Amino acid sequence: MEHKLNSMKPKILVLTGVGLNCEEETFEAYKLAGAEPKLHHVNQIIGGNVDFENFSLIHFTGGFSFGDHLGAGKVLANRFRPVLDKLIRFKERGGYILGVCNGFQVLVSLGLLGGNSVSLIENTSGHYQVAWHRIKINPKSPIKYLVREEGYEFPIRHAEGRLVVSDSIKPKLENAQLLSMRYTDLNPNGSYLNCAGLCDESGQIIGMMPHPENFISPYNHPRWPHRDPNLEPDGLCFFKKLVQQIAM
What we know:
- By secondary structure, the protein is an alpha/beta fold.
- The protein has helices at about 1-5, 25-30, 40-45, 75-80, 85-90, 100-110, 170-175, 235-245; strands spanning about 10-15, 35-40, 55-60, 95-100, 120, 130-135, 150-160, 160-165, 180-185, 195-200, 205-210.
């Protein structure tokens, strides 16, 4: 993609609007990680007013798009169907797509992760959950570029984060190591095999329920007085690894 060759800083498209509410933290995360983020309203994108070719990565942010009416992420996914082919071409030309929480739900609803054989449904607890959890990246997965030996600690904030997988696709997901992130302390939502995130075969499309953008400062952590303030926040480490990858 031409912009990767002509710019030292990868350009990141960050979605905003229609109930999404993590755009400011996400913008700051990419900025701190050495990228050049740009905020664009969902309506600008689906209206054809944003050229994907100007970007290296499209970030589907978390929140409650359209109030999660009809199910989490489903309305926004339907709004994006007219530009789905553009998203696929963007990826085929080397672009990356990351969906966090509501963004993950959108990518699954669009069929970009797991086709039509995976879903994100109501937590087994039956209610909205907020908690910090440890995750690890599968070192055999296509997103091994995000591996951190000690893993990451991120918060979750969702009511529909339970990944369910049809029997027909389980062998493919497992053999191709596409179950790319897993909870390592406990399974907070009942997801298949403790799965916290998925990727596609190329490693360019990633979906995850935990929020890395919510840990880019030492003071984001609820136990910050008891942690070494000189340690790099887990979320900032995550975004630096991601930016380094897309800048290659």
